[in-house]
Design brief:
single chain, 410 residues, alpha/beta, DNA polymerase, domain 1, TIM Barrel, 9-stranded mixed β-sheet, 10 helices, 13 strands, 17% strand, globular, binds S-adenosyl-L-homocysteine
Length: 410
């Protein structure tokens, strides 16, 4: 599948000295629009069949309840949970603590297969793996596993497709197929843990971690808008942080939720008792450009989104990140860096850091990443204004596994 995205360089008008202003425009693919001509936003998932219920959809208490309904002893819930969340297995052969008779049926009832691996792509150094999964209804999603010194990060998908229609992101171009279930989200992590345990992720582990390695960080930066699938994403977060064997026993701070800026959902997230790391995909500090670049900006403006991010920090004490894909001549002007810094500093100091991301090409795209000097200048302006800024090391470009490149085609 190719969805060429283009900017019309011919329409570029010089501003900011001799720096042109390229405007976002779709060419070669059609951005879906409403009757009023606005880019279509799909907040609700099409009403399609959800996958069968899986143990990871349920809390420990609900698992015990379900077992009771199946005529089994509730304490089996803990045993089954240990197999899944601590040993990452759904193989009845390995569940010798369960009575042999009825074991297979029990496993079938609690662990219906959710993800079928279609393809696995690996970078040359083996440090990054992109998985393509087929879901029960044929929908395709991807996750990306990355080894860094001292941590292993999995970038998970939360929806098949995405309804946010951002013209520079490959995922948005095909629209939203459906929300993923809680267990479909969780199972991406458990599957990745299995791959790591089998020694299939390259790179070197610290000696003390050999044999005990697993995913340490999860970022909701795969396919989908996590806050548009709020309930299921939050249940998945619970499975990640709940102590074993109820869940994976991970630390909330190592889980990042990234959003285009669904303001009411950000406020709800701040009221949860799980202080995850929060990231806002801003990409422009001015409404004029952001309205075109991030269609949801027509609903919630730059200042409302930044206010919600600031309140997230105030509520949780967790420093938030602002993501900013640097696109040549479109959003990379020094005046935009100054405006961004001003808007962030207006709210306070020390509550935020900025994560510029060199734009990754999407299929057929002529949008390009900013020139290195321009990138450096942008970062320099922010730093000079006292905003901690780190350029994101984007991984997996050669396997189309980097930010914005997940399109899940066979
Ligand atoms: N829907 C969520 C999470 C998925 S995207 C969100 O938008 O935040 C994760 C990050 O990748 C977002 O910051 C997104 O804006 C960014 N991104 C999308 N397309 C990109 C591209 N082509 N190059 C670089 N980053 C991109």
């Amino acid at each position: 599948m190719t969805f060429p995205t283009r900017t019309q360089n011919s329409s570029a008008t010089p501003v900011d000295g001799d720096r042109p202003q390229v405007r976002p425009a779709a060419e070669g693919w059609e951005q879906q629009r409403t009757a009023e001509g606005r880019p279509l936003l799909q907040f609700a998932s099409p009403r399609v069949k959800q996958p069968p219920q899986h143990l990871a959809d349920l809390s420990l208490a609900e698992r015990a309840e379900k077992l009771k309904e199946l005529g089994l002893q509730p304490f089996r819930a803990k045993q089954l949970s240990t197999h899944y969340f601590q040993h990452w297995t759904t193989d009845p052969e390995r569940m010798s603590d369960l009575p042999k008779s009825g074991r297979e049926e029990l496993v079938e009832a609690m662990f219906p297969p959710l993800l079928t691996e279609v393809r696995r792509l690996r970078t040359d150094d083996g440090n990054t793996i992109k998985f393509l999964w087929r879901l029960f209804d044929g929908a395709l999603v991807e996750s990306v596993l990355m080894r860094y010194p001292g941590r292993i990060t999995l970038c998970v998908s939360s929806q098949a497709g995405c309804g946010m229609n951002c013209p520079f992101c490959a995922t948005g171009q095909a629209g939203l197929t459906r929300n993923m279930s809680t267990a479909e989200i969780v199972d991406q992590v458990v599957a990745a843990n299995r791959v790591i345990a089998a020694g299939e992720l390259g790179g070197t582990a610290h000696a003390k971690e050999m044999g005990t390695e697993r995913v340490t960080n999860i970022v909701f930066m795969g396919m989908g808008e996590p806050l548009a699938n709020y309930k299921r994403v939050m249940a998945a977060v619970h499975r990640f942080v709940d102590p074993a064997p109820e869940g994976l026993g991970m630390s909330a701070r190592n889980i990042t939720i990234s959003t285009v800026g669904l303001v009411p959902a950000i406020r709800k997230l701040a009221d949860e008792d799980v202080p995850v790391t929060f990231a806002l995909s801003l990409h422009a500090p001015d409404d004029e450009l952001r309205d075109e670049l991030i269609p949801v900006n027509n609903r919630w403006k730059v200042d409302e989104a930044i206010d919600a991010a600031y309140d997230y920090f105030r509520r949780t004490g967790r420093r938030v990140s602002i993501e900013y894909a640097l696109i040549k001549d479109m959003n990379d002007h020094p005046w935009r860096a100054s405006l961004l810094a001003k808007k962030l500093n207006q709210r306070g100091r020390g509550w935020v850091h900025v994560n510029p991301i060199p734009l990754n090409p999407t299929p057929g795209s002529i949008w390009t990443a900013s020139e290195p000097e321009v990138q450096d200048e942008f970062v320099g302006v922010l730093r000079a204004a006292g905003i901690p800024t780190t350029l994101r090391d984007t991984r997996g470009k050669e396997i189309d596994g980097a930010c914005g490149q997940l399109a899940a085609a066979e």
